[in-house]
Write a structure and sequence with these properties.
mainly alpha
């Protein structure tokens, strides 16, 4: 019984780990998305579940080739139609955070899959962060989780991809800091523009 439970935890609720997903090309990812959309439409209830599984897979794949942008639209559309986009993103964020805060229950490859999910999510929501709003709350939640990526997970990624890993919480903090600096810069710009216009007007230009 213990072994069965451990195996379930070791893979968590993932369809694939990041290493398996990295091998999938555009056609394969499109098929994964299409199959889950069809499964959702056929479901009498729980229509968001297959879409959630596919969304997790899409965001858990290393995005060096910008695959997310190419395949995510049908999932976003269908989840929006179900009014479940924000709820689904929130649930998947919590799942990733909880797994990374409890690394002993998960294999390093699964831990790193959740890290990559959060990395990709942060990159996708970064342009949409406002002073208030869903995207900002997600970034703040990741920051406040104070995630420490285990050495085993860091080594897992380094061995497979030769890439180093920064805590998603640190990435979130950096994004929020940059957003504050950008906001302050934008607040300063209108004043300068007004002064410049006033100067031109007074000089008759």
């Amino acid at each position: 019984m213990f072994t069965f439970v451990f195996c379930m935890q070791a893979q968590a609720g993932l369809l694939f780990n990041y290493s398996q997903l990295a091998l999938k090309d555009l056609d394969q990812m499109n098929k994964l998305v299409s199959d889950k959309v069809k499964e959702s439409k056929k479901s009498a209830s729980g229509k968001a579940v297959p879409l959630k599984e596919a969304l997790q897979a899409v965001y858990s794949r290393p995005n060096d080739d910008d695959m997310i942008e190419k395949v995510v639209a049908p999932l976003r559309t269908n989840l929006d139609n179900l009014e479940s986009w924000e709820k689904t993103i929130s649930q998947l964020t919590d799942e990733a955070i909880n797994a990374l805060k409890n690394p002993r229950a998960f294999k390093p490859v699964v831990q790193m899959t959740y890290v990559i999910f959060l990395e990709n999510l942060l990159a996708e929501v970064k342009p949409y962060i406002k002073s208030e709003g869903f995207e900002r709350k997600i970034v703040e939640r990741i920051r406040d989780a104070q995630i420490e990526v285990s050495k085993e997970a860091v080594n897992e990624r380094k061995l497979r991809t030769m890439k180093s890993t920064v805590s998603p919480s640190e990435l979130a903090q950096k994004i929020l800091s940059q957003n504050i600096e950008k906001a302050e810069s934008l607040e300063a710009t209108p004043g300068s523009a007004t002064e410049s216009s006033a100067e031109k007007a007074s000089s008759g230009k």
